[in-house]
Amino acid sequence: MNKKKMIRLTALVGVATATGVVAEANQTHAATTTTTETTNQTTNASVESTQAAVDAAQSAFDTAQTSVDNAQANVTSASNNVTSASATLSSAIANKEAATSENIASATSAVSSQAVVVASASQAVSEQAGVVSAAASVQASAQAEATSASASLSSSSANVASAASALSAAEAALTSDQSTAANNLSAAESAASSASAAVSSDQAAVDNAQAAVASAQAIVDAVAEVQSSDVINMSVAYITALKNYLANPSSANAAALQEVAKGADYVKELQQKFKSDASLDVVVDPSDPTVQEALSVYAVNLINHLRNQYGLTTAFGASANANVAAIDFVKKYYDDEDWNIFGTTGSDGQGHNKNGLDAYADQLNTSIAEDAGSGLTTWVNGKATMATTTLHNLLYAVYSDIATMLFDDGGTNNWSHAQSIFEDGTILGTGGFNNVYLGVAFDKYGYAHYELYNATEGNQLGNNAYSLDVQTAAQALLTNAQASLASAKASLQRMTTNLMVAKAAVVAAQNQLAALENSSANDLVAVTKARTQLASAETSYQTALATYKQKEEALKKAGDNLAAAQASLEAAQATLATAKAKLAELEETVANLTNADQLLAAAQAAYEQAVANLTTATGNLGAAQVDLAKAESQLALAEDTAEQAKVRDAIAAQVDQQLNGSTANDRQSAGQDATSLKTNGRALTATVATASAAKQKQGANQGRLPQTGNDDQEASTMALVGLGMLGMATGLYGYKKRKLTK
To answer: Is residue 328 classed exposed, middle or buried when 0-12, 13-18 and 19+ CB atoms within 10 A define those classes?
Structure first.
């Protein structure tokens, strides 16, 4: 307890003590204690009483709230009933307006018509029910047959299993030696077959190698002679005219060059000088590496001979890499794209594939120039297919193309082919041709392509270079072909020996198997019998399986028919239900029209009753809300009273503690304080004197402070103490009031 509260409480106790003095200033402690205990009992009873009042008020409030909630629900329900009754009344009014004799007659007629529809639908349902019954009977019969077929199939399957088991047992009775011998025979036959295939393969390889040797020999015998004799020699006048033209391609220089070249007649003369040798009439593949090498070396030597006559010291080269690049380019940008450079007549072609040249130059990161010739179409004996071309044809095509580039290249080409042969460091005005390698390829139309590449270390087009010494190159080809032939013959010899060994092993295995079969004839008979029985069981099983499938199919069909019939029945039943519903609706319409007056009267009465019920419910809700407001007010008052009682009880307890804990000196001091107050405080003295007079008047015959207070004494004492308590209540504890939330 803080100091301020102690001072106020002490002053209050002094007043109470002074009031109780009648004749003697010094009172006994027991008398004072008795008085305070009586006061505490009174305040405790007051607290309990006020709390009981709060509980009762709370219960009354809860009851009132429930009444309000129920009344509100009744109002909502009554309002909904009014809405529904209003709709029913509106419908009845509309029905009354429609209830003319014509409408009633029309509705009655519609009922009669719909009754006929219902009867027809009912008949359809009956008939379809009969169909379903018949389909169910068929399905049941099919089910029985399918069950029987399934049982037969199971029995047949068991027979097959039994026969298979018997065969396994019979086969197991054969000796393991016989099985081993059979396996040995199978392995020997397989080895013999493989050996025979190897012999056939090696024989083909030998034949091919011999053909390659013959082809290489033909090249050795003829290419060198052709290369040395098939040269193109230019006149000094031609060389001079060509140099003048290339230095200054004027019209005059072009005319002079054309005059010296003598045109197509001179080309034919050169072509006729080509040496024809029977040893060159060997059918070859133009894309074969050996033929490629021969063609590119032949072409480069022809060109380099011309360049020497022209006075150039730099020579073109030939390599396997350049040939591979040429073949790849022609296939990709001419064959695969169906690009016909000359067409069928020489004047209807597509020309050079310039986009392809640009793309391939980017791919190889180099400069590329392309010359093209009529190739195989320039043969004296006419055009031949690529599949039947000979070495003679190919060499002649190269010779003729290069000759034509020199002497018959006027017109729109402006001698560009000749420029590509004789320019040094550039080709047709394009630089980057200081190390030229030539690749030769024929497209699928038979036209020849001469691809001029500038070889560098990066693109490696000069790698795997060919020797331009024709005789040396041809001899190397022959040597390689002869080595391949020798290797093929050696392999054929080995495979032939292996085949002989394998055939001997087959004979030995057959003999071993025959001996074992003779010694186990009975086991073989048992195996044969078991196999026959198994075959018979399998045949029976297949028959049973076919029957089972047939019955299952029949069962499925019967099931489908039954399902279809049931679906039709359900559809008929749905139709009947719809017709009945329509009939009921029409009958209801007739009834409504016929009884329009009664229905309207009933609807009007129901509506009025619903309105009356709503009025009553609304009134009940208002009354319940009034009761709730009263209960809420009473609950608030009871809670305030209870709070005040609790405050008084707390102060009384503090007074009791103050009195019970004081000593004789405290009591004497308190008496002195009272006397001092009587003499020094006028207002308080007057108050004490008045209280004392009342006490003396009430208890003049007692002569001392009463030990047990009666009702009057308690009221007198509590009057002063109560004033002090009420004065302190708000300062000591604060005033509390419950706020209603309901």
So the answer is: middle
- Note the pLDDT tens digit of each residue in 628-682: 999 999 999 999 999 999 998 899 888 888 877 655 555 555 555 444 434 443 3
> Would you state the structure tokens that stand for residue 723, as one six-digit string?
């004033």
Three-state DSSP class for residue 385: coil
Cβ burial, residue 517 (10 Å; 0-12/13-18/19+): middle
- Residue 413 tokens read as 């080409």
* Distance between CA atoms of residues 721 and 733, nearest Å: 17
CB 371 within 8 A of CB 405: yes
Cβ atoms of 555 and 139 within 8 Å: the answer is yes
The phi and psi torsions of 346 (rounded to 5 degrees) equal: 95, -15
Nearest residue to 677 via CA among 4, 32, 5, 12: 12
The DSSP secondary structure of 386-425, one letter per residue, reads GGG-BHHHHHHHHHHHHHHHHHS--GGGTTHHHHHHH-SE
Query: What are the pLDDT digits (tens) for 600-634?
Result: 999 999 999 999 999 999 999 999 999 999 999 99
Q: Which residues contact 131 (CB under 8 A, 6 or more apart)?
A: 565, 568, 569
Question: Is the predicted pLDDT of residue 12 greater than 50, yes or no?
Answer: no
- Among candidates 724, 731, 708, which has minimal Cα distance to 658? 724
Question: Using the 8-state DSSP alphabet, how is residue 319 labeled?
Answer: B
Has residue 693 got a pLDDT over 60?
no
Within 10 Å of residue 356's Cβ, how many Cβ atoms?
18
Tokens of 403: 């000759």
**φ and ψ at 32, to 5 degrees?**
-65, -45
Distance CA 13, CA 666 (A): 11
Round to whole Å and give the CA distance between 487 and 570. Answer: 88
Are 565 and 201 contacting, i.e. CB atoms less than 8 angstroms apart?
A: no
- d(CA 204, CA 488) in angstroms, rounded, equals 9
Burial track 59-95 (b if 16+ CB lie within 10 A, e otherwise): ebbeebbebbeebeebbeebeebbeebeebbeebeeb
Cα torsion 710, 713, 717, 723: sign? positive
DSSP 642-701: HHHHHHHHHHHHHHHHHHHT--HHHHHHHHHHHHHHHHH-HHHHHHHHHHHHHHHHHSTT
For the chain, report the end-to-end CA distance as a whole number of angstroms: 37
pLDDT over 70 at 722, yes or no:
no
Categorize the per-residue pLDDT at 512 as very low, low, confident or very high, splitting at 50, 70 and 90.
low
Query: In sequence order, what are the residues at sequence separation of 6 or more whose Cβ sits closer than 8 angstroms to the Cβ of residue 149?
Result: 544, 547, 548, 550, 551, 552
Domain range annotation of the chain? 316-467
pLDDT per residue over 208-255, tens digit each? 777 777 766 666 665 655 555 567 888 888 899 989 988 898 889 888
Owner of token pair 């396997």: 320
Let me know: does 14 contact 691? Beta carbons within 8 Å: no
Nearest CA to 270 out of 450, 411, 405, 414 is that of 405
CA-nearest of 697, 669, 673 to 684 is: 673
Global pTM?
0.41
Residue 488 near residue 203 (C-beta atoms within 8 A): no
Instruction: Pick the closest to residue 294 from 385, 378, 399 (CA basis).
Output: 399
If one counts every other C-beta atom within 10 angstroms of the C-beta of residue 734, the result is 9
Q: Is residue 67 within 8 Å of residue 627, measured between CB atoms? A: yes
Check if the beta carbon of residue 533 is closer than 8 Å to that of residue 161.
no
Instruction: Give the whole-angstrom CA distance, residue 116 versus residue 714.
Output: 103
